[in-house]
Structure formats: structure tokens, C-alpha cells
Amino acid sequence: MAAAQVDRLAAIEARQGQIIAAVTDFGERHPSTARVLGWLSLDTTGIAFAALFFCWSLSPSLLPRDWLFQGIIGGINAAIGYGLGCVVGWAVTRLVLRGRSWWPLPLPVERAIMVAVPVAGVLAALVALVLAAGQQRQLAALMNAEGTTTSGYLRTCLLSLAVAALLISLWRGLRDIGRWIAGQLIRRTRMPVGLARTLAVMLVVLATFMLIDGVLLRVAYAITNSAFSLQDDTTRPGAVQPLDPSKSGSPESFAPWETLGFEGRNFVSRGLDADELTAINGGPAQEPIRVYVGLDTAETPEERVDLVVDELERTGAFDRSVLVLIPTTGTGWVNPTAAQAMELVHNGDVAMVAWQYSFLPSWISFLADKEKAAAAGEMLIDRVHQRWLELPEDQRPELFVYGESLGTQSGEGAFDSLAEIRETVDGVLWVGPPNSNRLWGQLVERRDPGSTEVEPVYADGLVVRFADSRQEIGVPDTPWLSPRVLYIQHASDPVVWWSPELLFTRPDWLSEPPGPDRLPQMRWFPFVTFWQVSADLTNAAGVPDGHGHNYGTTVLDGWVAVTQPEGWTDTDTERVRIALEALRKTQGPEK
């Protein structure tokens, strides 16, 4: 028995020697062809893991995905799976299989496995694609959106293959550079092989990091900032300079029209005037005040925030019943539906103030410069609050804070705690808060036992409440003290649930019963779920009202709940909602 085993091992070693000799000879005679074949060769275990990760990526996420987004996500995850499979295969071969009497497997078996694994992977991917197309249609139906077709979804496979091939090729290029560096170190310094390889890997990783973080990202940031600053010089069709002195950008304003930026000009020109408010509400209305300062209005943040206060003084904003501070998103965007809701609810007896702190859209500001957003919100709220405190207590307007998306992060930057919010303002409405919001995270983490992460209850809803829809704003049915703090967040909003922790950690919201517009089939998979939700971010607001990052007129109900206007009824809310819906249809999209 022992002799037979020795003979078998000898035969295996001889076969391996023949293969190595043949490969070496071919490589010496045809170096270019050998290099190409080497790049095209794939690890069998890597292929199996790539197919598994691709199939995982087809599981539903928060929002419906078309074949293009799914193809990109599938390719990224397949590449990650391939790399992980290669590592696992190498480790198992080296630590478990080496020295086994039956290893390596006979050549016919190896060849059969090399054929069977890719074929099985393709078949599994096709079956998973068909099932995924059906799930995508179910998810679209939950949101009253148009679903995909099975035949169209099959295009995902080809796109994912191309994306995975590109990423694997990039990795192999970096690997070959590392091998070349190691060879040079060994040849020129007689460095030990192990040390040379380790040092080469460290050099490649460091150089790649420096290239991405120190060059590519900075160049991309500068180019993007320049591109969006050019867009900031344009004006939305239909936006015209206001003549009413109660608006920034008017001839009497300290903030000239041309300095307000794209979003600022849209904000000051899109408001309702006193006649329109009177017609909708059926009673005499005041002319609402809209104050805005753009990046080009003054050179420094300190000068801009002083100009904000000067504009509030000039327009008589401190004489109104309600003063609303609106920390904005990256470009200075203010949700026009929310602003119009405030004007309608208070029949014009309201002043709103916002300012711009970046040229970049929210998602870029969030990734590249979210500290700037928090600092901008803190500066705006602190400066206006200081001036507000100088007024006699019985002559101060009610002071509220409103923010949406990155604007909630900007607004939270002004407060260290819930107690400070209650000491500073008369109420807060925050809509679609990013998962990285510090205060939001603390409140959700400390939610009452038994409440879920998607629908948290904090301290029996005594001060802070979370709502998925207008019907849930009054839940729980317990006393709600003033000043009130309200977060409106959808179970399907990727802005609320995206986090880098999704890479390696299953969050509570994926362990709990799903929200009203999330499929129960959504599961957490390492790496995969992170890229799925990342893709959802790109279409967060592209779904119907009441889903994703599109909050529609729910902001009206939130505003009424937080400000508690005297004598207001549900009939008034529905009357204003009808007016807002009509305005949204006639004035075009919100973003």
C-alpha cells in the first residue's frame, strides 16, 4: 500500500514537472501570448465565489433597480467574490489539502471541475436573474412604479461580466507591479524573498492609496467643484428677480440677485405672494419673507452670516410670528414644497432664512465635506439665535429649524444634545436624515426596548418622534411636549440606511420585520448589501412620493405637528395639500 502511494506521488510530481516545463518553454517562445493567456486564466474557486456573490447581489434592496444599476453592482460584487475565492482556495490548498494522499486530484477530475464550475455558475446566474426580475417587479408595485421585464433584466449578466473583468484586470495589474518591484529588490539588494514580497506589497498599497486619496480624489473634487460652480451661475427657467423688498435678491436687498447662486435664485423667486395666499386660505395674508445668501454674496463665511442677519433686519423678519432657519443641502437647495407649506400654514406671517455653503450636490458634499455642512449649520443657527435673544422675550418670533437630507446633518451640527435643542428653538422638523447623523444615531441607538430601528420610539415619544408617513406622526398616542422634534424617514430611503458598516455588519433594520415599502426577501450579505444600497442612493429621489428619498407633501403634516398653529384643523391640512399638489404640477420638479 505504501509503495503504491509512493509511486502515485512520484507520478504526480513527474506530471507537474512536465506541465511546468511545457509552460516555461511556451512562455519563452511566445512571451506576449503567454502573458495574455496568463491574464485570461481564472481560478476555479474564485469563479465559484464570484457566481455566489453575483447571485447574492440580485436579491432585492431598498429601491427597484434596472438592469444597468444591477449590472454594475453585480460586477463589483462578483469581482469581490472572485478575490475572496482565490484567497480561500489558496489557504485551503496550503493549510488543509497539502500532503493528503488523494491530492492533487486526477487530471480528468480536475478538467471536469474546471468545466463544471463555470457552467454551473452561468446557469445559477441565469436562474437567479429570472427570479430577481420578478422580485424587482414586486418591489416596484409596492411603490406604484414601473417594473422591469425579465428579458431586459438578462442584459445584467453581460454588463456584470464586463465590470468584473475590468476590476480583476486592474487587480492583476497591481499584482504584477508588486511582483516586479519584489524582483528588483531581490536582484539589486539580495533581500530575502519573503521580506522583498512584503515590502513590495506595502509599496503598492501605499502608492495606490496616495494616488487615489492624494491625487485622483482631489483632482476629481476640484473638477467637480469647478463644474458645479459654473452651473451655479445659471438660473432655472422661470426664476425671475423678485421686486418685493421682503425677498433677498430684490433691488433693495443687501444680497444681489446675481450672487445668490442657482438654488438661491430659485428659492427667493418661487415663493407665494400675499394675493396667492389669500386666495388659497380665504383670509388676508401677509407677504412672506425669504432671506438667502449665496457663496458669491460675500467672501468669507463670517461675512456671509453677518449679511444673513442684516437681511433679516432689513426685511423685518424678527417682527413676524414665525422665523424658520433652514440649513441647506450642499448646493444650497431648499425643498420648494416645504417652503410653500410654511407660507400657507402661517398665511404669510413667516420669515425663512437659508444660505449656501458649497457648490457641490448633497451626495458629493456628504462623501467629501460633511464636516463643512455641520459647521455651516452651526454658524447659521448660532448667529441668528444670538440676535434673536437680544429681542424682548415677549416680542420674539417662534424660532424653528427645518432641514432635509444633508440639511438635517447641517442642522444637527448646531446642537450637542436634545436638551440644547429644547433650550434654543421652539421646534425642529428633520426629513430624510443621513445614517451618519450624530444626534439621530444616538436617539435611535437609545430607543425604547421593543421598538424597531425603522420605527423607533424614544422616551415614549415625549419630545422626539419618528414617522414613516403622515398617518404615523401622531404615534404613539401619548403626550408630546413642546418644543417638539420630529424626524420623518422612510423605511425605503437609502439616504437614511446607507452606512459603511453595511460592508461587514448586519444592521438591526435588516433583522427586524420590514417597513411598509420594503420586501421581506431583502437580506444582508457581507459586501453585497453595501453596494446594493450604494446603488440605491443614486436613484433615491427618483421614485414616487412617499417612498425612498421622495417625501412629497408629508412635510406639510410634519410642519403642522411641530409648529402647532392655533386653530388649525385636519380640513385645513387637506386644503393646503391640494394647493401644494397643484403647485408641484405647475412649477415642475423639486430638484
SSE topology string: HHHHHHHHHHEHEHEHEHHEHEEHHHH
The oligomeric state of the chains shown is: single chain
Q: What Rg is obtained from the alpha carbons, in whole angstroms? A: 30 Å
**N-to-C CA distance:** 78 Å
Beta strands, count: 7
Beta-strand percentage range: 5-15%
* Total helical elements: 20
Helix content: 55-70%
User: What is the approximate shape?
Assistant: elongated
Could you describe the largest sheet, including whether it forms a barrel?
A: 7 strands, parallel
Helix vs. strand class: alpha/beta
Number of domains: 3
> Which regions contain 5 or more consecutive residues with pLDDT less than 50?
none
Major beta sheet, strand line-up: 1-3-2-4-5-7-6
Domain Alpha/beta-hydrolase N-terminal: 58-271
InterPro entries: Alpha/beta-hydrolase_catalytic (IPR027787), Alpha/beta-hydrolase_fam (IPR012037), Alpha/beta-hydrolase_N_dom (IPR027788)
Keywords: Hydrolase, Membrane, Transmembrane, Transmembrane helix
Domain Alpha/beta-hydrolase catalytic: 289-576
